[in-house]
Write a structure and sequence with these properties.
Oligomer: single chain
Family: Belongs to the GTP-binding SRP family. SRP54 subfamily.
CATH architecture of the largest domain: 3-Layer(aba) Sandwich
Subunit structure: Part of the signal recognition particle protein translocation system, which is composed of SRP and FtsY.
CATH superfamily of the largest domain: P-loop containing nucleotide triphosphate hydrolases
Order of helices and strands: HHHHHEHEHEHEHEHEHEEHHHHHHHHH
Catalytic activity: GTP + H2O = GDP + phosphate + H(+)
Organism: Romboutsia sedimentorum
Structural class: alpha/beta
Shape: flat
Helix content: 55-70%
Strand order of the largest sheet: 3-2-4-1-5-6-7-8
Number of domains: 3
Number of strands: 8
Enzyme class: hydrolase
């Protein structure tokens, strides 16, 4: 789960308050000390942490919280609101020019994932009906042009290049002319990076900016580098001026220092986040949703969006009826695993469900990717139709036959049956929580929103 270390520590610090009735000022200060340590360990900028704790503490010690019937819930709500504010309050979108083409200039250091992100961004806007053109202006890094061409080919997006002998400034200008002639309404310029910020790089980027006058300059930084990413963002912004930040490799970032510091230090919004290696693993950044996920409140809106993009909604409705009637069978199990697999890793999906971020521990070693998925399919496909539809008849001799037919062991078959039963329990629990939420007025009924 993203920011897992930070999330666990923050939730741990705040959960201690829930066990108390009335809170004293000392209780709040003790909790804030733990929150402060959690943020510093997550590599959040020291000044940012200091200001954050000061704001939260000032609001928490106010009369409204101290006299509340549920002060712990109010404090969680305040932390949630201040985390959201820290990361930018509202989502910030790319400015689309009323007069095409919109020009986006991608900048950043080597290794941050700039070239792949340029392609992902093209794919993101292509889904929205745009006609993007990728322009290869990195003439220094070996195979950079080829990499952009490969990405463009996979996404069916044209790539403009003039080889590695022409100057990046001339390539950018020629790419813009090519877009105008070929009716491309979005131009994404992949510029060169360096291993560190240097004068020659900045001069070249400033020249490209001067010549093509981009509508947006997006800085790509590796979130896993923490404070280094913040320092890079500060340098690029001071020298070049950037309009927004793209944080890559966020799915592997357990700390969250860059995401929580960049906005406060640079005053520039995070516009997109990279959530994996697939070419569609680029998402618009929503500060409020990220704050909720960090505090274990889930992210239902993102979950719904992912489901709508990747799942067959007619089949989902059929499955919902089966769950309600307790009629889930192995055929449904396999189909559901495949659909969930399309949405991304299981722990990422569970992290979007309120209060269910840690339920992955209950699923044992279930793995929806790679070998485990193939083994699961083989086991289910080795069952008879009757066995799939009525798993209760799976006795010892049937399990042996299924194990032989799927090239697995009886232990593997037993493990799958256990996972199936755990999934049924989880589904039942989730549908139950939906009913109780409806009775209590939906999300407004949750304690955090009272």
């Amino acid at each position: 789960m993203i920011f897992e270390g930070l999330s666990d520590k923050l939730q741990g610090a705040l959960s201690k308050l829930k066990s108390k009735g009335k809170l004293t000022e000392k209780d709040i200060k003790d909790a804030m000390r733990e929150v402060k340590l959690a943020l510093l360990e997550a590599d959040v900028n020291f000044k940012v942490v200091k200001d954050f704790i000061k704001k939260v503490q000032e609001r928490c010690v106010g009369q409204e919280v101290m006299e509340s019937l549920t002060p712990a819930q109010h404090i969680i709500k305040i932390v949630n609101e201040e985390l959201t504010s820290l990361m930018g309050d509202v989502s910030s979108k790319v400015v689309i020019s009323p007069k095409p083409p919109t020009i986006i200039m991608m900048v950043g250091l080597q290794g941050a994932g700039k070239t792949t992100t340029s392609g992902k961004l093209g794919g993101y806007f292509k889904k929205q009906g745009k006609r993007p053109l990728l322009v290869a202006c990195d003439v220094y890094r070996p195979a950079a042009i080829k990499q952009l061409q490969v990405v463009g080919e996979k996404l069916d997006i044209p790539v403009f290049n003039m080889g590695d002998k022409e100057s990046p400034i001339n390539i950018a200008k020629a790419g813009l002319s090519h877009a105008l002639k070929n009716n491309n309404d979005l131009v994404i310029i992949d510029t060169a990076g360096r291993l560190h910020v240097d004068e020659a790089l900045m001069d070249e980027l400033k020249s490209i900016k001067s010549e093509v006058k981009p509508h947006e300059i997006l800085l790509v930084v590796d979130s896993m580098t923490g404070q280094d990413a913040v320092n890079v963002a500060e340098s690029f912004n001071e020298t070049l001026g950037v309009d927004g930040v793209v944080l890559t490799k966020l799915d592997g970032d357990t700390r969250g220092g860059a995401a929580l510091s960049i906005r406060a230090v640079t005053q520039k919004p995070i516009k997109f986040i990279g959530m994996g290696e697939k070419l569609d693993d680029l998402e618009q950044f929503h500060p409020d949703r990220m704050a909720s996920r960090i505090l274990g409140m889930g992210d239902i809106l993102s979950l719904i969006e992912k489901a709508q993009e990747n799942m067959d909604m007619d089949k989902a409705r059929e499955l919902e009826q089966k769950i309600k009637k307790q009629e889930l069978d192995f055929e449904d199990f396999l189909e559901q695993m495949e659909q969930i697999q399309n949405m991304g890793p299981l722990d990422k999906i569970l992290g979007m469900m309120p209060g269910m971020g840690n339920i992955k521990d209950q699923l044992g070693d279930v793995d929806l990717n790679g070998k485990e998925m193939k083994r699961t399919k083989a086991i289910v496909q080795s069952m008879t139709v009757e066995e799939r539809r009525n798993p209760t008849i799976l006795n010892a001799s049937r399990k042996k036959r299924i194990a032989r037919g799927s090239g697995s062991s009886v232990q593997d078959v037993n493990r799958l049956i256990k996972q199936f039963n755990e999934m049924k329990k989880m589904m039942k629990m989730f549908t139950g929580s939906q009913k109780s939420m409806k009775k209590r007025g939906g999300f407004a009924g949750l304690p955090f929103f009272k």
